[in-house]
Amino acid sequence: MIIAERKPITEIWRLIESYRQILVVGCRGCVTVCLAGGAREVANLANLLHLAAREHGCSITILQHTVERQCEYEFVQPLAAYGQGDCSIEAVVSLGCGIGVQAVAECLPDIPVYPGLNTSFLGMPERSGRWVERCHACGQCILDKTGGICPIARCAKNLLNGPCGGSQHGQCEIGGGTDCAWQLIYDKLSRLNQLDRLKEIALPKDWSKDRDGGPRRLCREDWEEDNFTDEVRE
Amino acid sequence: MKSGSNLEKVLRAGHFAVTTEIGPPKSCDAEVVRRHGETLRGYADAYNVTDNQTAVVRLSSMAACTILTGMGLEPVLQMTCRDRNRIALQSDLLGAAALGIRNVLCLTGDHQSFGNHPDSKNVFDLDSIQLIHTARLMRDKGQFLCGEEMKVKPRLFIGGVVNPFADPFEFRVTRLAKKNAAGADFVQTQAILDMSRFERFMKKVREAGLHEQVFILAGLMPIKSARMARYMQKNVPGMMVSEEICQRLEKAEDVKAEAVKLVVEQIEQIRQIEGVAGVHLMAVAWEEIIPAIVEQAGLYPRPSL
Ligand code: SF4
Ligand code: SF4
To answer: Nearest residue of B to residue A187 by CA position?
Structure first.
């Protein structure tokens, strides 16, 4: 899932301090699970912003709205109502990931939408209160070759031919308690009796499937609207 | 002869080779490079020029190499994968050959978090093994990575590094085998400050027959102070410093003399190890000590071929 963390309250306050009517939008997806942007965090942020407003000698109105998933039009479309009629929302703070923020902004073309989170990485909780990166969405998965451990996301140099000279005692040379991904890969393949796989030279990777190839788009012809038969529609 | 470099000639003639290192300055002062070149002239068969070592911005390795060739000294161009993608790396390999640089050393490169621009992007489009493969493809097949052909092939003596002191230990031999298979003609090791580990490494290298396929130069580093030795023992990833070395430096009255003595002794030990083709002397910020080491080790004068 997508892991995110809330921006410091002072930063969020500075984004919205000139507005008096604010909508904070949460998401029940990934950011609820990583405790950054669910209904609870929306309420929490609203409280903190009220406090900040009081400190600055002003008062603000904050509406709260948490949707099922901010990353699907279906669920954010209802937010468009806040931009219509006599609704007086001046600004929105989205506690969705970067995708959510953009989807909300698309639905509310005339109202500024600000990010309340820093979207960090694709990962998972390792234990309570600690999340770790696992995938970089490189577009061409090589986990089959690396014992199910990703060197693109988990090696500081995304090496493909084994550990660099800085790997020692299972730790990456960058320190900070980072495991060396290649030590993990080595140990795993050694358990699987597949160390031979690491003897082959991994040739340069095709990074064009990663972000280097430009913004990515995935098309499934069998699912594109135009190709829907009446049968499928029903 | 693949490159016709002096280093290649010395190694192929069976001489025990000596290489050493010149670190370019953190400014555009060419005089620093010339001064180091002059100090070391005649004491090595080729001179490695580091490439923004430890991710600190310095005068470019290619430029410093060119200054050395202009002085009649033979450089080994160090190239890391940290700062350039495959387009720039291949372009620089062509450029190096055009400038008369005959040796390249292909490295992955230290992570930028060690350097003075920790907030920079890193590239790592290729890794060191892929860079070796690329250099060989260009030299032997006259091909770019994409398969396109070039008119004139760059004549290069291709090197890599190995670190017998990093983990996992067994895989370090596999990595050497991969570098050899990818096209390395020679390798230089990380500084040996734990001889028994290096001996174990070389035993495995011989078992794999690699010492007969690739020239192995043992890396050695004189250490100026006992404190530095302790620091490296505890804090530098990928380094191992034996207790003996630390203690000898700690007990020595003249630490610098002891440091030289240690390296000279190490050279004697290394010459007894089957499969080692030479030494690579790294005296970071202490280049002026190299001549004394080379002389005392009986490796002076260098063969002229
Ligand atoms: S190889 Fe690519 S797709 Fe697979 S886990 Fe790593 S980054 Fe993700
Ligand atoms: S120490 Fe391991 S994880 Fe860190 S850069 Fe080197 S190979 Fe990658």
So the answer is: B168
Residue A84: which residues within 8 A CB-CB, separation 6 or more? none
Domain count for chain A: 2
A47 shares a domain with A93? yes
Q: Check whether A234 has a pLDDT greater than 60.
A: no
Same domain, A194 and A100: no
Q: Do the domain assignments include residue A93?
A: yes
Instruction: Give the domain range for residue A156.
Output: 138-209
Distance from C-alpha of B95 to C-alpha of A83, rounded to nearest angstrom: 59
Residue A88 belongs to domain with CATH number: 3.40.50.2300
Find the Cα–Cα–Cα–Cα dihedral B88, B92, B95, B99, rounded to 10°: 160
pLDDT value at residue B284: 86
Taking residues A71-93, what's their average pLDDT?
91
Q: At residue B19, does pLDDT exceed 60?
A: yes
- Measuring from atom 7 of ligand 2, which residue has the nearest CA? A163
d(C-alpha B118, C-alpha B122), whole Å: 10
Does the interface ipTM go beyond 0.95?
no
Residue A87: what pLDDT? Answer: 72
Q: Which of A89-93, A221-225, B15-19, B29-33 has the lowest mean pLDDT?
A: A221-225
Residue among A173, A187, A204 minimizing CB distance to B238: A173
Q: How many of the other CB atoms lie within 10 Å of CB of A159? A: 23
Closest ligand 1 atom to A139 CA: 3
Residue A39, helix vs strand vs coil? helix
The rounded mean pLDDT for chain B is 97
Task: Tell me the longest C-alpha to C-alpha distance in chain B.
Answer: 61
Choose which residue among A150, A157, A218 to substitute to test ligand 1 binding: the one with the highest number of ligand atoms within 8 A of its C-beta. Answer: A150
Shared-domain flag, residues A100 and A152: no
Is residue A137 classed as helix, strand or coil in its secondary structure? coil
Q: Are B219 and B191 in contact (CB under 8 A)?
A: yes
- Chain B residues closer than 8 Å to A195 by CB: 174
Quote the pLDDT of residue A83.
83
Average pLDDT value for residue range B191-199: 97
Residue A184 lies in a domain: yes
Task: Report residues whose beta carbon is within 6 angstroms of any ligand 1 atom.
Answer: A 135-138, 141-143, 150, 152-153
